[in-house]
Amino acid sequence: MSPVDLSLYLVLDPGLCGGPDGMVHTALIAAENGATAVQLRAPDWKKRQWFETARVLKQALAPLGVPLIINDQVDVALAVGAGVHVGQADLPVAEVRRLLGPEAIVGLSVSDAAELETVSDDGIDYLGIGPVYPTGSKADAAPATGLALFAELVRAARLPVVAIGGISNSNCAPLFAAGAQGIAVISAICGQTDIAAATRSLRREIDRART
Questions:
Q1: Which of 11, 44, 149, 192 would staple 145 via disulfide (CB 3.0–4.6 Å)?
Q2: Catalytic-labelled residue, pool 7, 41, 58, 137
Q3: Annotation marks residue 41 as catalytic
């Protein structure tokens, strides 16, 4: 797979966005204003809703060159031609890669050193490490790593790392200094009154941190 820009990775939340239509609206505005990847995450949805929303998102984002990544649901990713992000308890990465083929984006969540030790870079394009800061966007999130442990995990990782968890434009710069290739955000964009302005603000902080 060719390298993908993970610098501003938006994770869509159906509650904060106001349902499927709001998720598509949020994704499009964010992609037009600096988001570089979009993940569809909706743990309470039925499979048909996953598929229908993913198909609309894929079609809407394609002209902008922004990839769609599906959280956990490998069959939905396969059906719409999207990437996938899996957790430690989901389908093994080797099986995900076998099903989706060599060109699909495949990401894996890691929350501590023990999980990182089990990671093989074969078949994985990036690691999502976190939560770095405390977060209310994911009820089953692991304890926050904090910046120091996050930096240690990034140094030990052999793959590009996307930081996730409690990230905003006021605290993202140290994550890039620690070696992150990108940040994943939910509430910093989803549900904001001005999605375009919120995205541009993050984009400015990211660009400043990277230079």
A1: 149
A2: 41
A3: yes
Contact 188, 202 (CB under 8 A): yes
Q: Which residue's entry shows tokens 């955000």? A: 185
Active site residue 138: yes
DSSP string for 94-158 = HHHHHHH-TTS-EEEEE-SHHHHHT---TT--EEEE--SS--SS-TTPPPP-HHHHHHHHHHH-S
End-to-end CA distance of the chain: 26
- Give the number of other Cβ atoms within 10 Å of residue 100's Cβ: 21
* pLDDT tens sequence across 38-92: 999 999 999 999 999 999 999 999 999 999 999 999 999 999 999 999 999 999 9
> Is residue 109 annotated as part of the catalytic site, yes or no?
yes
Gyration radius (Cα) of the chain, Å: 16
Of the residues 7, 109, 137, 201, only one is catalytic, namely: 109
Helical pair 47-61 and 20-32, crossing angle rounded to 10 deg: 20
For residue 168, which of 143, 137, 125 has the smallest C-alpha distance?
A: 137
DSSP annotation of 66 reads: P
Residue ranges of domains in the chain, CATH in brackets: 8-210 (3.20.20.70)
Indicate whether this model's pTM tops 0.90.
yes
Check residue 1 and report its DSSP letter: -
